[in-house]
Design a protein that fits this description.
The protein is mainly beta. It has 1 helix and 10 strands; from the N terminus they run βββαβββββββ.
């Protein structure tokens, strides 16, 4: 039973933009804070951005002012608009609740920033 499904990743040049989407089942999405996480090769998974059910957002220092997290509660969908991408943003990106729940990890979507 797929509960979250991330999409929108790809290969982009430095300075480019991507928009990630996460479709989640309603039972997970509604009334929960949601987060975008990423895991780069050889590194631990980290929280990138989170958004409360009411829309309050919080960002990691490394992405603040470049990334924007948003949610559409009517569609049970989470978004991450990524601008001014850097090579160090290369990672697999995942969505999950905040705090994260281990059983909810999906396949993620690969983002590669390279010239």
């Amino acid at each position: 039973q797929v509960q979250v499904a991330e999409s929108g990743g790809g290969l982009v040049q430095p300075g480019g933009s991507l928009r990630l989407s996460c479709a989640a089942s309603g039972s997970i999405f509604r009334r929960n804070a949601m987060g975008w996480y990423r895991q780069a090769p050889g590194k631990e998974r980290e929280l990138v951005a989170r958004i409360a059910d009411g829309g309050v957002t919080n960002y990691a220092d490394s992405v603040r002012d470049r990334f924007t997290i948003s949610r559409d509660n009517a569609k049970d969908t989470l978004y991450l608009q990524m601008n001014s991408l850097k090579p160090e943003d290369t990672a697999v990106y995942y969505c999950n609740t905040y705090p994260k729940v281990t059983r909810l990890w999906g396949q993620g979507t690969q983002v590669t920033v390279s010239s």
